[in-house]
């Protein structure tokens, strides 16, 4: 009986850690010391005696990002590297700019849920659930609308307006991480063998070879 309880407690502990996001802070703040040669989970704290208001400050999100690229998209991510005061606080922010018909292509953040607010424009957005359902949850968003993309799930945002648009995303990690599906698959370094990709995507190898030159 006691051992069964122990097993249950152990399972609960392991499970709660497996679903945890960024760890909770153990002090008021831990401003990132970008010069530290020490590697820890997150970034090393600088001496709090030398911490200033500038450490908690970032400017420039009023400026649109440059969307002159194939996707017509730019992300300006304010993570703990960009804003050292965010270190250990489990949160970050991004400004997402879109040219007309600009696309933030299917991607995932391995460590963060994302909540997206439309400031300007009209967007078609969505995310896909895990296997085996792979259910698409999608929606058209207008100015002022908010949509949440659950942690780890593949999602996208597409500007369906004739004008440029932008939004602000909150992310539940100081370092959400980004895996762009097409790039990770077709532009890994070194490349994944075209035999593997041809079989995985049920494509002719020539198409795979062509796709591998596109990113
Ligand atoms: C910060 O300043 C206080 C007061 O001067 C001092 O006692 C403390 O040792 C300092 N802390 C560090 C980490 O330097």
Automatic annotation (TrEMBL):
UniProt entry keywords in alphabetical sequence: Apoplast, Disulfide bond, Manganese, Metal-binding, Secreted, Signal
Any Pfam family matching the protein: Cupin_1
Gene Ontology CC: apoplast
UniProt xrefs under InterPro entries: Cupin_1 (IPR006045), Germin (IPR001929), Germin_Mn-BS (IPR019780), RmlC-like_jellyroll (IPR014710), RmlC_Cupin_sf (IPR011051)
Domain Cupin type-1: start-end pairs: 59-209
SUPFAM superfamilies hit by this protein: RmlC-like cupins
Keyword Cell wall biogenesis/degradation: no
Residues spanning the signal sequence: 1-20
Disulfide bonds: 30-45
Localization (cell): Secreted, Extracellular space, Apoplast
Binding residues for oxalate: 104, 109, 114
Binding site for Mn(2+): 107, 109, 114, 155
Any one Gene Ontology molecular-function term assigned to this protein's record: manganese ion binding
Transmembrane region(s): none
CDD domains linked to this entry: cupin_OxOx
Family that this chain belongs to: Belongs to the germin family.
Protein name as it appears in the record: Germin-like protein
